[in-house]
Design a protein that fits this description.
The mean pLDDT is 90. The chain has eight helices and no strands. The protein is globular.
Length: 207
């Protein structure tokens, strides 16, 4: 049933008027991400391995990211030069967050993060949820480099660089918590950053 509903929502974009397509695709991307998220969490709650993760759910993640990318492009064309729209900003955030959480290549995520960072001083479009996305990005970088440090992969990352990423992660995540974005994942991200900081300290002591 879930797959048939997703197929219907995906196919309906052909019926959407050009000026409204960007917003529609952003909504489609959100639906696909939530479907992937529920499947992902249920998968690991029952102790299954990553190799058993359904290929159809991986496709939902890929389509969610692709829908966001197209939405960013379409919504950008509707913007006044130098004047970002709230809808476009949320499309950028969608691409960044979905890319991080579903495992898109880092090089594809970086551009969206940079575009978000450029919006920090634009009160018209900045949303507290973006703080969580940026914090999660820095957490992702820190965890990746921490794993390389623990397993002694060459070139071995600098400890100070990992610490800096964790500091940035917590800085943005605490902002999201203070602004109460109403997302329980913020607390999970903060907990993960604190755990990573503890794991880094243990690793440093063992060197």
């Amino acid at each position: 049933v879930k797959q048939s509903l997703i197929d219907e929502v995906w196919a309906r974009q052909r019926e959407v008027n050009g000026s409204r397509l960007g917003g529609y695709l952003l909504g489609v991307g959100y639906v696909l991400y939530q479907a992937w998220r529920k499947e992902f969490r249920g998968h690991y709650v029952f102790g299954r391995t990553g190799s058993d993760f359904p290929s159809v759910a991986r496709e939902w993640a890929q389509k969610s990211f692709a829908a966001g990318q197209t939405a960013v492009q379409l919504l950008r064309t509707n913007m006044t030069a130098g004047d970002a729209s709230l809808e476009w900003a949320f499309a950028v955030n969608h691409c960044a967050y979905v890319g991080i959480t579903t495992g898109a290549p880092t090089r594809e995520i970086q551009g969206y993060i940079l575009e978000l960072l450029a919006l920090q001083n634009d009160a018209k479009v900045w949303a507290a949820r973006f703080d969580d996305t940026i914090g999660t990005y820095h957490l992702h970088l820190a965890e990746r480099e921490l794993e390389r440090l623990v397993t002694r992969q060459e070139p071995v990352p600098e400890i100070a660089a990992i610490q800096k990423e964790l500091e940035r992660a917590l800085e943005y995540l605490e902002k999201a918590r203070a602004r109460d974005v109403g997302d329980t994942d913020v607390e999970l991200h903060i907990s993960a950053a604190q755990n990573a900081r503890g794991r880094l300290a243990e690793t440093v002591r063992a060197l």
